[in-house]
Amino acid sequence: MRHRSIRIAVPMMLLCLLCACAGKAQNPVQAPMDFRGRLLAEGGCAFELEARAEAGDRLWQLTLSCELDAAGDGTVTVLAPESIAGITARSQGGSGSLVYDGVCLGLGTLPGTELAPAAAPGRLVRAWAQDWISSAGPDAGCLLAAYEDGSFLSYTWFDARNLPVRAELAVDGETRFRAEIRNFRWKSGTQSAP
Question: What are the tens digits of pLDDT across the range 149-160?
Answer without folding.
Answer: 987 899 999 999
